[in-house]
Amino acid sequence: MEKPEQPLSPRPKPIYMTIATWIFIGTVIAAFLIFKQVNAVKPETAREWLKKGATVIDVRSEGEFQEKHLPGTINIPLDRLGDEIARVAPNKEQPLLLHCLSGSRSAAGEATLKKMGYRNVFNLGSYGRAEKILSE
User: Fold this and answer.
1) CA torsion sign, 84 to 89 to 91 to 97?
2) Residue 122: partners with Cβ closer than 8 Å, 6 or more residues away
3) C-alpha 73: how far from its chain's center?
4) Domains contained in the chain, number
5) Residue 123: enclosing H or E segment and its boundaries?
6) How many Cα neighbours within 13 Å face the side chain of 42?
7) Which of 75, 126, 131 is nearest to 105 (CA)?
8) Domain that holds residue 80
9) Cβ-contact 42, 58 below 8 angstroms
10) pLDDT tens, position by position, 90-121
């Protein structure tokens, strides 16, 4: 008498998320959003630098800039920032305010410029946040 064939593997268990998983995901997202706000320059500080002649640099791509940009901003895409900043700001004391679409690229640009020795460089954050700061 032959044994009946057994399945090769048991039936997979359904995938679901526990409440702890959702809490963890929510905490990570909240921490990310808080971190972004902490790293962005305060609006009052940005306005003070603007009064002192700060240059506003949009680090989005050329295509994004062509599609829509804030008046008076200069476009230097993040991937070219290190190579092209000297023509816009040869003086490393020149105040620079950077922005992009979400604030991530401008944060990276801020770090790049600080490593290059620029002392007064700040992240305005997202396009919407920069627009609000520049219009007030």
Assistant:
1) negative
2) 41, 45, 46, 49, 95, 96, 97, 98, 110
3) 17
4) 1
5) strand 121-125
6) 3
7) 126
8) 42-135
9) no
10) 999 999 999 999 998 999 999 999 999 999 99
Residue 3 falls inside a structural domain: no
State the catalytic residues: 100
Can you give the length of the chain in residues? 136
Contacts with 60 (C-beta within 8 Å, 6 or more apart), sequence order: 75, 77, 78, 100, 101, 105, 127
Would you give per-residue pLDDT tens digits along the chain (136 residues)? Answer: 566 665 565 665 556 667 777 777 877 776 655 555 557 899 999 999 999 999 999 999 999 999 999 999 999 999 999 999 999 999 999 999 999 999 989 999 999 999 999 999 999 999 999 999 999 8
